[in-house]
């Protein structure tokens, strides 16, 4: 056993059975085969024990060196890891959510401001009653007799000024009168075709198309006038309403011609003149109300308004022609 301890301590793999001086190992003649087998068994046992000790010592001393992988060690749970991870993900989600709401809010506000800038609420233009329709027809057909003001009435809504609807303001534009006047214009054109013996669906459709084309030309004329005078931010439906008021004078002229044909040559120039005066006063005092407070109108602007009024005469005569 002393030889085994020395061999394990020195780190050798084979027992020191040789004699000092480097002599070879000799077995006694009497032991023979049994002694050889015992030596081999002892050597194998020591080899296994030494290999086990060597592996344990290597992992304990060299486990921290690079390239050496030691036995798996269960990590200690971090009680703050989940809390920090949850807080970090919550902050990220909150920051992204706030940025998304800010972006979408600014985008929707921008779209809403620009849409309301050019397109108003269609329901606004149909808030009318009988009294408004009567008074508005008087202003359109007889603008020289109107003694009231031409500016629109404002009211505070949501922290900013907004125009009152037509039911409360006679100078507010509406779409009820233009649509009714256009329908009356088409019906009277059909009656005229019938009295002339030239009624047909094709003729009525041509007159309908001509009326829409005239309305469109009137809108383009007014819109171009606004841009030329440096104020092109009026709502489109306002311009459509002002352009459609021309059919009130056209319907009155066609009705008078059904009763007396010669009245056409008197009423057509008169209604054209009245429509020109109405548009000039409307464009000058309603649409340019804000601009007139800060700067004075030049002679060029007056000439443009005069051209717009003169343009009503050929437009009225073209729309007033009823032929198959």
TrEMBL record:
A GO BP entry is:
protein transport
Membrane disposition:
Multi-pass membrane protein
Per the record, the major location class is endoplasmic reticulum
Where it sits in the cell: the answer is: Endoplasmic reticulum membrane; Golgi apparatus membrane
Q: Which residues cross the membrane?
A: 175-196, 208-227, 239-258, 264-282, 303-320
Key words, A-Z: Endoplasmic reticulum, Golgi apparatus, Membrane, Protein transport, Transmembrane, Transmembrane helix, Transport
Similarity comment text for this entry? Belongs to the YIF1 family.
Name-wise, this protein is Uncharacterized protein
Q: Which organism is it from?
A: Zingiber officinale (Ginger)
